[in-house]
Design a protein that fits this description.
The structure holds 2 protein chains of 2 kinds. By secondary structure, chain A is of the alpha/beta class. Chain A is built from 10 helices and 13 strands. Chain B is an alpha/beta fold. Chain B has an 8-stranded mixed sheet, with helices on both faces. The two termini of chain B are 25 Å apart. Classes of the chains: A alpha/beta, B alpha/beta. The complex binds thiamine diphosphate (TPP) and iron/sulfur cluster (SF4). Chain A: Keywords: Iron, Iron-sulfur, Magnesium, Metal-binding, Oxidoreductase, Thiamine pyrophosphate.
């Protein structure tokens, strides 16, 4: 069947030839196509870096924002129009360095947004400095000295921040990554995919060759089941996911680490407070009629009666 | 105090957290219900409990007051610190209400007092040969200043009340505000009925509090029976049927609801946070039948960076969106501000100035962020900076800020300050008939839609989420579709389009949104200022006109784009030497802004940067110094 929409924009991707970002883009395009998402109801929000350019290459709404700030932009977009599908793309410097606070906040809130981390261990666009996921003492070819800082573990951070869907993919296993993206986008709540992304220009440690040898699939363990069936089960499954997230080196797991569908989303919590929110959202609530406020004088005075004082005058004081 | 007065100044003081603010609300409403105009400024430390806080009020029978004056007719003190800190603020013949249990307190026994303040007050007392104890201060006031001390036994009153109502001893301190309200009401001769109404409005559903406070009022009235109506206000001479009693924070929040704001983000900071608190209380907007017509999503974000950027995100979907902050938070928002400028996003930032730099004076007022609002951000882009000079203006300006933002697709900074934010004032109930909502040029979108079309200066705006429409935004320079473009020709077209909107804004905004001239058309002197100095300057001008000196006030409402042509026109008959500027800052920056925008040089400046509001009396003296030619720059310092 012909896809209803064409998702590839006609902007030329100016990534270095061979970059892992191409694999992520292809998987994303394929996922959008298979999900048949309406481009006008889909938004890709990115930060700054090589990965930040992703929205321009995709034919859905694109918002290319500030370094580290894609998540706050996405938060405003999603809460103002919860009908939109919102997907964030950012680098490891972007989401886990300058934007780490926002990364944690999205998990805590469990907003229905998908976050895709282009995890290449370096700051690509500023020419290869160590990123927050590069291990201590690692020395990529662009570094003058070995890395002096400890890395963060993106999967572990996502698990402990409250993301209710946590996965890892590999940029050059397109079919597999595409499925992860589909699952993440369909998940109700904050979803995170750590994508191992070779940067062929600056990272000669985490190369495609390195990953090809190390990566294995979680489900190759026959007992692996990351899905929380009842909310009581959550802590057990979370602990198992945490344990798995610590594996790194010769063997690196990819796949779904944790899924918990039992946590309410931020939008659902808002809907409980705001009577109109579930049906009418900030982006489409009428705010005027014929150029006048929707609030009538009478409604205004009723609504704010605690601030209004009737003046009886001084007679009989 | 013989005869009756046109206006009465009242000062209420006590430890932070003891109910001083509650007293202010109740008294303000009681006075307004009796037909008087009221203004009340709240001064407090950055502290939750224990530090000295006070409220300075003015009640007027002739008009809604717009400035404060010293000395005051009535000082009501909850504690010894208030007596020491404010005994010089009572006018001759005025009244001191105090707790007799504090009589023996000495100044060096008050731990909450800052050393510098203690030393300053001790110095004043020793100059006057007064022992540093409450008792001696009271005697001095009575003997040398003809001030009537009204000592009340606070603990005895509370004991009687607790016996009558079996109130737990620990809960009794909640009734201190009742003593303050009652004693001031008795001295002013306000009826029991009015006071009870005030309690009712304050305590609402909590009927027992109304009853208990009413009982307390009677106890106080009995104790002060000889002084009932000792200070008489004239019969009110202006008529209002109903009025609003609000703080500046309240007014802006209420106006945002009228304006149709549907998304507000914030990160807690004084003095801005109360605005979002209020919005959150009213997040279900109801019509006259109680039906919900819409809702406001209020989000407390993880920081100011998230606050501004999430508001931008919401605005892209078509929601009217805003965020609110003060200096330190605004600094964090600046990168987002530039992004909004680059992407022509209608974003409103409500910016309440407080004393800087850094955390400076977190709970005090200032106007020292003028340049921060006007110039913050990298690169050049169009932004609008509006200021409001009083509560009612703030109401209409808030709505206008959103109209301007959407009509011209620019970020708008609504620049206010702590004085306005925390001042309680009476204002007429706004007339919504005069309020318009303008959303600007909108587009339906559709295939091929160009968000940044160069066909017109203002590109028709479609919202993210519009049917069959796809659009791109980027902080990089971009083409008409919103894709990154570095071609020099596109750069020039897009860059200049964004900035040239300022000319359109200049042309289209009506004069009264830009500059307002108050007072005589061809004055001897012109005072230039903006924001909350207006009230006190207008009162000073009135004072001078009674003395035969014609002064006018030019209130700059539109700070950016600066209305240069109009300014030059209005000031064309006046030499530079006859223009003065007043501001709550060291530099009196408005004079520099005028100078860079118009070439006119204002040298004469009155400045105040203690963090306390300008009092009428000190401003009058300051202006006299300048007009007489004795000085070119005057720094005001009055206030505790
Ligand atoms: C506030 C801010 N600081 C610094 C930069 C410069 N900057 C541009 S790209 C980049 C690094 C991006 O690295 P990463 O997020 O890992 O993405 P990658 O390029 O590797 O995809 C930086 C620091 C910026 N644009 N904004
Ligand atoms: S620098 Fe690295 S991450 Fe960036 S495009 Fe080139 S290969 Fe890809």
């Amino acid at each position: 069947m012909e896809p209803r929409w064409s998702y590839k924009s006609n902007v030329w991707p100016d990534w270095c030839p061979g970059c892992g970002n191409f694999g992520i883009l292809t998987a994303l395009l394929k996922a959008l196509e298979e999900l048949s998402l309406d481009p006008s109801q889909t938004v890709i929000v990115s930060g700054i870096g090589c990965s930040g350019k992703t929205p321009h290459f995709v034919n859905v709404n694109g918002v290319h924002t500030l370094h580290g700030r894609a998540i706050p932009f996405a938060t405003g977009i999603k809460l103002a129009n919860p009908g939109l599908k919102v997907i964030v793309h950012g680098g490891d410097g972007d989401l886990l360095g300058i934007g780490a606070g926002h990364f944690v906040a999205l998990g805590r809130r469990n907003i229905d947004v998908t976050v895709i981390l282009h995890d290449n261990g370096v700051y690509g666009l500023t020419k290869g400095q160590a990123s927050p996921t590069l291990p201590l003492k690692a020395r990529t070819k662009s570094l003058a000295k070995p890395n002096i800082q400890q890395p963060v573990n993106p999967v572990l951070l996502a698990l402990s921040s409250g993301y209710t869907f946590v996965a890892r993919g590999y940029a050059f296993d397109g079919a597999y990554l595409k499925n992860l993206i589909k699952m993440a986008v369909q998940h109700r709540g904050a979803a995170f995919i750590d994508v191992l992304q070779p940067c062929i220009t600056f990272n000669d440690v985490y190369t495609a060759d390195f990953y090809r040898k190390a990566v294995y699939k979680l489900e190759s363990d026959p007992g692996w089941d990351p899905v929380v069936k009842t909310s009581e089960e959550a802590s057990v499954k979370l602990m198992r996911a945490v344990e798995k997230s610590l594996e790194w080196g010769d063997r690196i797991p990819v796949g779904v680490f944790y899924v918990n569908p039992h946590v309410s989303t931020f939008e659902e919590r808002l809907g409980e407070r705001l009577r109109k929110y579930p049906v009418q959202n900030p982006s489409n609530t009428p705010i005027e009629s014929a150029g006048k406020p929707v609030l009538s004088q009478e409604a205004f005075e009723k609504m704010f009666k605690e601030f209004i004082v009737r003046v009886s005058g001084t007679q009989g004081r | 105090m013989g005869g009756s007065l046109k206006e009465v100044g009242i000062l209420l003081g006590g430890p932070q957290g003891s109910g001083i603010e509650t007293s202010m609300w109740i008294l303000s409403r009681v006075l307004v219900s009796k037909g008087y105009g009221v203004i009340a400024d709240r001064e407090y430390f950055s502290n939750i409990t224990g530090r000295h806080s006070y409220i300075q009020m003015l009640a007027s029978s002739v008009k809604p007051p717009r400035s404060l004056k010293y000395p005051v007719e009535i000082l009501a003190s909850m504690d010894a610190e208030t007596v020491f800190t404010h005994f010089t603020d009572i006018s001759e013949g005025g009244i001191l209400i105090y707790d007799v249990n504090t009589s023996s307190r000495r100044i060096d026994e008050i731990p909450s007092m800052e050393d510098a303040t203690r030393e300053r007050v001790a110095r004043i007392l020793s100059d006057k040969n007064v022992e540093p104890s409450v008792e001696s201060v009271v005697k001095y006031l009575e003997r040398d200043k003809r001030i009537l001390p009204l000592g009340l036994d606070f603990s005895a009153l509370l004991k009687t009340l607790s016996e009558q109502y079996r109130i737990d001893a620990r809960a009794l301190s909640r009734f201190l505000s009742g003593i303050i309200v009652s004693s001031v009401a008795v001295v002013l001769g306000l009826s029991e009925e009015a006071v009870v109404q005030g309690f009712e409005q304050q305590f609402g559903e909590r009927k027992h509090l109304v009853e208990q406070n009413t009982a307390l009022y009677r106890l106080v009235r009995d104790a002060l029976s000889n002084h009932y109506g000792a200070v008489r206000l004239d019969e009110p001479g202006f008529s209002m049927e109903k009025a609003m009693v609000v703080t500046g924070n309240d007014v802006v929040a209420i106006a945002k609801i009228v304006a149709g704001v549907r998304y507000q983000s914030y990160y807690p900071i004084t003095p801005a946070a109360d605005e979002s608190f209020l919005l959150e209380r009213y997040d279900n907007i109801v019509d006259e039948t109680g039906e919900v017509v819409g809702s406001v999503v209020v989000v407390q974000t993880e920081d100011e960076i998230a606050a501004v950027n999430s508001a931008i995100g919401a605005a892209l979907t078509g929601a009217r969106a805003s965020t609110t902050t003060s200096g330190p938070g605004f600094d964090l928002m600046v990168e987002g501000l530039s992004w909004a400028g680059m992407n022509e996003v209608p974003l409103v930032i409500t910016y309440y100035q407080r004393g800087g730099p850094s955390t400076g004076q977190p709970t005090r007022g200032s106007q020292s962020d003028l340049f921060n609002a006007v110039f913050a951000g990298h690169g050049e882009f169009a932004r609008v900076v509006l200021s409001s000079s009083d509560h009612l203006e703030a109401f209409y300006d808030t709505i206008e800020a959103f109209n301007i933002a959407e009509k011209y697709q620019v970020p708008v900074i609504h620049l206010l300050d702590k004085f306005l934010a925390n001042t309680v004032a009476v204002m007429p109930v706004p007339d919504l008939g005069g309020v318009g909502i303008e959303r600007g040029v909108l587009a339906k979108g559709g295939p091929g839609y160009k968000r940044f079309s160069l066909e017109s200066l203002i590109s028709p705006r479609a919202f993210i989420g519009a049917r069959d429409t796809v659009m791109w935004y980027t902080g990089d320079e971009h083409d008409e579709h919103g894709h990154i473009a570095e071609d020099p020709e596109i750069r020039v077209k897009m860059y200049s389009k964004r900035i040239e909107k300022l000319n359109l804004i200049q042309r289209e905004l009506p004069l009264e949104r830009k500059l307002r001239l108050h007072g005589p058309g061809s004055p001897d002197y012109l005072v230039v200022g903006w924001g909350s100095v207006k009230g006190v300057v207008l009162d000073a001008i009135e004072y001078f006109s009674e003395k035969g000196l014609r002064m006018a006030y030019l209130d700059v409402k539109l700070l950016w784009p600066f209305p240069s042509e109009e300014f030059l026109k209005i000031t064309s008959g006046l030499p530079d030497s006859r223009i003065l500027a007043v501001e709550h800052s060291y530099g009196v920056n408005i004079a520099e802004l005028v100078s860079m925008s118009t070439g006119r040089r204002i040298v004469k400046r009155v400045s105040k940067y203690t963090g306390r509001p300008i009092m009428l009396d000190e401003l009058v003296k300051g202006l006299e110094e300048i007009v007489s030619g004795r000085r070119e720059r005057v720094v005001l310092t009055y206030g505790a």
